[in-house]
Amino acid sequence: SLNDFLGKELSISWSGKIICSNCKKSTKKSFGEGFCFTCFQTAPEASPCILKPELCRAHLGEGRDVLYEQLHHLQPHVVYLACTDNVKVGVTRKTQIPTRWIDQGAAEVIVVAETENRYQAGIIEVAMKDFYTDKTNWKNMLINKRESEIDLIQEKWEAHEQMPSDLSVFWTDNDDILSIYYPVNNYPDTVRSITLDEFPTVKGVLTGIRGQYLYFDEQNVFNIRRHSGYDVNINL
User: Fold this and answer.
1) What's the pLDDT score for residue 155?
2) Using CA atoms, how far apart are residues 229 and 224, in angstroms rounded to an integer?
């Protein structure tokens, strides 16, 4: 576990190669989350509905790979509200709880609705975007800055009142809030994102981990997901 190396020096060195996370071929540039351009255009893991669930066609028996769609998208999904730097709405497969929330760096999360498939969850998310963002200000999150105190239960039921009946029926009565704590020694006042494209070797004292980000000394942060497919050597 990386937690064991907090306070110790860590270096990540890039060989200069990028390997597609799907076909495993070498690529000059990474698209999406580690795909070559061809796989980004054709692989079911990179379908537009991954980022925009409302575009999912699995319930119609359609998609880049129908079997993949059935296994991953014709499954129970949840719509949730998360505290990152503000209140954010999101969608994830039920089996991805709490992994998805930890990956996003959420501090608190409440499930708003439970649906039978990804498309239904996406339609609810679109309706809720009238009141909530689906984006996170990563800099504010990484310095642990919040716009205000947030009551997720109140937010959940206020949103319910605004939903049409065909969407509000998916609301869940479970108001449990999951609080997530991250191993960060001290939150910095400001952060600077560093990449392997800029610095082929990233090194420093590991001071924290939040979601997909590693904190280093000197207020540097490193986005692991941003470097999906990069061939690296890690020294601890």
Assistant:
1) 97
2) 10
Q: Whole-angstrom Cα distance, residue 226 to residue 223?
A: 5
- Say what the pLDDT of residue 129 is: 96
Measured distance CA(86)–CA(104) in Å, rounded: 13
Residues 125-157: tens digit of each pLDDT: 999 999 999 999 999 999 999 877 899 999 999
- Other beta carbons within 10 Å of 134: 14
**Burial of 4 by CB count in 10 Å (0-12 exposed, 13-18 middle, 19+ buried)?**
exposed
Q: In sequence order, what DSSP letters do the residues of 72-127 get, joined into one string? A: HTSS-EEEEEEESSSEEEEEEEGGGTTHHHHHHT-SEEEEEEEESSHHHHHHHHHH
The counts of H helices and E strands in the chain are: 8, 10
Q: How do residues 148-203 score in pLDDT, each as one tens digit? A: 789 999 999 999 999 999 999 999 999 999 999 999 989 999 999 999 999 999 99
Q: SS3 of 196, please?
A: coil
Q: Which segments of 150-217 does DSSP mark as H helices, in order?
A: 152-162, 165-168
Taking the CA atoms of 34, 35, 41 and 43 in sequence, report the sign of the dihedral they define: negative
